[in-house]
Design brief:
By secondary structure, chain A is α/β, with parallel strands linked by helices. Chain A is about 55% helix and about 10% strand.
Chain lengths: ~325, ~325
């Protein structure tokens, strides 16, 4: 099937073809750019929510409950899981998978997992491209579920309009370790499993960190919401806070600025991919192969070799 | 001071200037390439050890004990900590910092922490460049301490000749979550704090995973060493296994192949940095700025804009 026909079927949300479009993107096929260009004109209508946090925080259960709630409002929900511990990607317990199948069989829900095993290279780009496919297919809400540890995963979370960082009362160490990264991306904190001991302490230490960052009367202060996702507690509060954040972004026009910033880093990544594929042609790969032993032994500096390769590339344009 | 004089002082291991050289690299100053080219010709003599694992596994304590042992053999040791939870970088408890000061005041030891807060971009490159400075300054052993969660940290660990993955008996979940990544980089596993319950289980599950991977009679099977680093238990076993791995790498000539592979990815990163700084001149940044809102609204595909920018860049060469 050519890409024009495929894109038409994506616009009609024919799930089989939505899947196929994402697979083409995931394969890293160089022609996928053509497909994405066709799909792109129908994007920009979905609201994107990032859900991240350490393994075991209950991100999938929360995704599940939020999805059920969105469905009650008749919103179509696309879920992209890039979390190796998520039941969507096959990392979790049987019980979770059973729970997932509740929403998995719903016509208005599309669930897709992206491979994280092996190399992470290009993962964030492919994930955001996959979200564009779902956007073009008419999903109103897109949820990215990622485990908040790696740079790629943080990049994905940043690509969302609203990013929710999910923690549990025991996450103290994780909070400390990921402080800078989490603070940078969180629009909301959810302290899940808040019926466990220590939840008040967790909230206090989050508040302390939040107070330390610069803010003024106009800036968004990430709310901290208590939840027990497995018992559907706190889900409405989270939905309300998402709505409140969305209204904040829209009234300040920050939603456009945020999306523009995301588009910029995305375009830079695309530029890099194209240039890299042109530079690393067979001749330059062979030159690198031939000269690299001189670099290891100290005869040739990696900086000199890099410049040589760039000059080759330019003189052949 | 010009770079030639600075490099001479680095060759003499004048610590103040070793520090300054690393700071120049860390600043991302574009002239740092010139300094590195000067230093490069004296590199290739140090043995590089990566120590990685989840927060709280005891990586710093292990680094400390290994360093004391290497010092007994009169080897000079350079330590580069890129772990936000390491006492070297300021993340850990007072007790750890006190322990660190034992080796910190030793003339034959150089300790440097690399910033991980904020953006991780370029971190692995800068860290490997910093190791070249220490190599040129005559350090026999260089230890990279990283927290094994992000891609940058894994890249750093991979840049070592011998990579040690440190776990604790409770690391079961971490083992599962990081399985692919850990297996790819580990030349040795240390089950630290092995006096705690569950250490035999941890070893069994590691063994199970190890047996699943492809191997033959010639391939290196990562040993699993039990240790209690805080009590100096198992340190000699670890040193012996490092030595055995080094002999394996040298006898099979894999050490060269490994260093060549690392050099190659490093050169590719350098090429990318140079090209990126040329592409993203003011004109192209402005074009991106002007057109990005059309991308957000779906009028212009990010792929088309990327190609436009590349064509601008080429036509101006």
């Amino acid at each position: 099937m050519d890409y024009i026909s495929l894109s038409e079927k994506v616009f009609k949300n024919e799930k089989r073809f939505v899947s196929r479009a994402i697979s083409i993107i995931e394969s890293g096929n160089s022609e996928s750019a053509q497909l994405l260009s066709l799909l792109h004109k129908r994007t920009g209508n979905s609201y994107r929510i990032g859900i991240t946090g350490p393994p075991g925080a209950g991100k999938s259960t929360l995704t599940n409950q939020l999805t059920k709630q969105f469905r009650k409002d008749n919103l179509k929900v696309g879920i992209i899981a890039v979390d190796p511990t998520s039941p969507f990607t096959g990392g979790a317990l049987l019980g979770d998978r059973v729970r997932m199948s509740e929403i998995g069989s719903d016509e208005g829900v599309f669930i897709r997992s992206m491979a994280t095993r092996g190399s992470l290279g290009g993962l964030s780009k492919k994930t955001i491209d996959a979200a564009d496919v779902l956007d073009a297919a008419g999903y109103d809400v897109i949820i990215f579920e990622t485990v908040g540890v790696g740079q790629s995963e943080l990049d994905i979370a940043k690509a969302a309009d609203t990013t929710i960082v999910v923690l549990v009362p025991e996450s103290g160490d994780a909070i400390q370790a990921m402080k800078a990264g989490l603070m940078e991306i969180a629009d909301m904190f959810v302290v899940n499993k808040s019926d466990r001991p220590g939840s008040e302490n967790a909230i206090t230490s989050l508040n302390t960190i939040l107070m330390m960052r610069e803010h003024n009367a106009e800036s968004w202060l990430p709310p901290i919401v208590k939840a027990v996702a497995s018992e559907n507690k706190g889900i409405n509060d989270i939905i309300n806070e998402i709505q409140r954040h969305r209204e904040y972004l829209e009234s300040t026009n920050l939603i456009l600025k945020k999306r523009e910033a995301n588009s910029k880093s995305r375009i830079k990544e695309i530029v890099y991919d194209i240039i890299a594929s042109e530079i690393w042609n067979r001749k330059n790969e062979e030159d690198l192969e031939d000269s690299v032993s001189d670099v290891v032994t100290g005869k040739l500096s990696p900086y000199n070799l890099a410049n040589q390769i760039i000059n080759n590339f330019k003189s052949n344009l």
